[in-house]
Amino acid sequence: MASPEVIERIRQQAVKQLPGLVTEEGYPASAEGRFRNAIFTRDYCTFGLLALEKPQNGELPIILEGIKTSLETSARHQGMKYDPTTCETPCEMPHEMHGETSNQERLAEIKRNGGPVIEINGHLEMITYWARDVNGLWNSLFSRYVLLTGDWTFRDKLWSNLEASVRWLAEEGDIDGDLLIEGPHNQWWKDSETSLVDEQGRMPLDPVATLDVNSFAYLSDILSADLYESKGNLRMAQMLRERALERRRLINKLFWIEDFGLYAPAIDAAKKPISIQTSDSVFPLWVGIPDSQRAERVVARLVQPDLLTMWGLRTRSRHSTKYDPGEYQNGNVWFQLAAIAAAGCERYGLTQEAVVFDDCVYRTSSELGFPELSEVDDQNNVFPYRENGVPVACNPQTWVIGGVLNRTASR
Description:
It comes from Candidatus Curtissbacteria bacterium RIFCSPHIGHO2_01_FULL_40_12. The protein is an alpha+beta fold. It is built from 15 helices and 13 strands.
């Protein structure tokens, strides 16, 4: 276990990154690398939800300033129409927002590959809606921000955006009317084409419902209900709380795989769990989906060596036939996951288990900085994540910073 002095040193290193992370548009995915100054709703919302769980140690004003600006930026680009190129739908929050200060070489590459990049006044920009989790995440962070700060003026300024976003979860997000949020197999936090290929090499038929997307929809119901109550709309607050209970019941019923002691990362179009052992169970653990007994089983499974390394959690079990520590989201280590797992353990009072994940957070921060992901081999050697032989992982990455702020804040 790290000493208080080491933990404080790690924290100060993370805090030093904050001024460089805040742009005129809010928190970008990364201050450096291929996503420099690009605002990703998923990334800043994960950062914000992690950071705002704790009172922090005096750094809250700068954290809140960036969160507020980020929320406004997404709200300005909330979907108005159906656009198959960008995947925009009415009321949907954008995921990627690349502007003038974003990595122009990266945008040029996306444009060459047929992406919806446009040129404005001599520079490239792109806004896309390639994600199904962003509405639940945006609602959750907006609600938590307002309830924490008591900024009712800001609440009222973006109230119509919240109402529209809540409506998206009930209409556009829920394709077949079963209360779950469905979508393409690559529009969740694992946005690769292969992360849901099962042990027999089969890709599930779309639409799929993924674990993280629906976990955050549950959190949105809970926190948005509190915000509706602050406006005096008790009927809507009650409806959202009832929806949350049913969403939680469905996740526990449809995603749980008893033999694994884990939730499936997704269910397919036939509502059958995709039988892959992954670390995605950190998400329902974090937001409070399992009961205490099931939470203990999840954590006991996550700490097994096929999933947990000394640096953090693998995205796919070492025992999987499709495991590859160097492949994007099929076995490499993403460094926000250990912090989310630790926060989930803390929710359930599993303090000793939280220390296990915290040690991963501290070790990574001390020795590697704040990278988004790395390859970790069976001997716990760390290698930079590469594409076409070129290291491309962002460092510092915003949601990794959020995880460090969460795990080093005063209790």
